[in-house]
């Protein structure tokens, strides 16, 4: 029997609850269904107070160091971030600034984002994908973008979004099996 896949889910929102976290939870649940998966949740909302002043991973307090280590050891990453002024939040970038630049080589990454309107739908292509290209990850071809209208009380309410999540999960599963 093979070891479970280490799936790390990174929520890039500094708020709780958040639409990005709800999107992340749906993607993670879909990917984990039916296979041995060890899921680690990394929440920027919980880590945000620890990030200011940390300029190196070696200086990180224990909770932040654990999150960094989990990201660096991931077999698969699922990342969801809110759109903030046309990009991902600065603290989200700061967290990934602490990740060793060679630790994510060839790691499959499923990208997702949420924003107030369709105007920000290209954030996955123009902001998130280049960030993870720096780490030489395998960003999966299909990301998921959601707008505020896709949610009710921080829960997915749009059938169209549910279909996009299902499609992204089905296309990502072969990458998980390849890592297992």
Structural overview:
It is a single chain. The chain has 180 residues and is an alpha/beta fold. The protein has a single domain (5-179), classed as 3-Layer(aba) Sandwich (Rossmann fold). The chain has helices at 19-32, 44-47, 62-72, 90-97, 123-134, 159-179; strands at 5-11, 37-43, 76-82, 108-115, 138-139, 144-147, 151-152, 155-156. Strands 1, 2, 3, 4, 5 and 6 form a 6-stranded parallel beta sheet that branches. Helix 4 (90-97) links the parallel strand 3 (76-82) and strand 4 (108-115). Helix 1 (19-32) crosses helix 6. The longest helix is centred in the C-terminal third of the chain and has 21 residues, at 159-179. The radius of gyration is 15 Å and the shape is globular. The mean pLDDT is 95.
What's the SSE blueprint?
Elements (H helix, E strand, L loop, with lengths): L4 E7 L7 H14 L4 E7 H4 L14 H11 L3 E7 L7 H8 L10 E8 L7 H12 L3 E2 L4 E4 L3 E2 L2 E2 L2 H21 L1
Parallel strand pairs: 1-2, 1-3, 3-4, 4-5, 4-6
Antiparallel strand pairs: 7-8
Helix pairs in contact: 1-6
């Amino acid at each position: 029997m093979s070891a479970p896949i280490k799936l790390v889910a990174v929520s890039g929102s500094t708020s709780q609850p958040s639409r990005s976290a709800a999107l992340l939870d749906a993607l993670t649940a879909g990917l984990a269904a039916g296979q041995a998966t060890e899921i680690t949740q990394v929440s920027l909302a919980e880590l945000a107070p620890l990030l200011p002043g940390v300029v190196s991973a070696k200086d990180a307090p224990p909770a932040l160091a654990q999150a960094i280590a989990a990201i660096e050891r991931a077999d698969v990453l699922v990342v969801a971030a809110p759109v903030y002024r046309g990009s991902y939040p600065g603290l989200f970038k700061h967290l990934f600034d602490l990740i060793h630049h060679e630790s994510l080589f060839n790691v499959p990454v499923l990208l997702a984002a949420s924003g107030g309107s369709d105007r920000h739908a290209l954030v996955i292509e123009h902001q998130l994908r280049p960030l993870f290209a720096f780490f030489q990850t395998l960003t999966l071809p299909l990301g998921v973008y959601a707008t505020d209208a896709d949610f009710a009380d921080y829960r997915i309410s749009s059938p169209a979004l549910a279909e996009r999540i299902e499609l992204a999960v089905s296309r990502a599963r072969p990458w998980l099996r390849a890592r297992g």
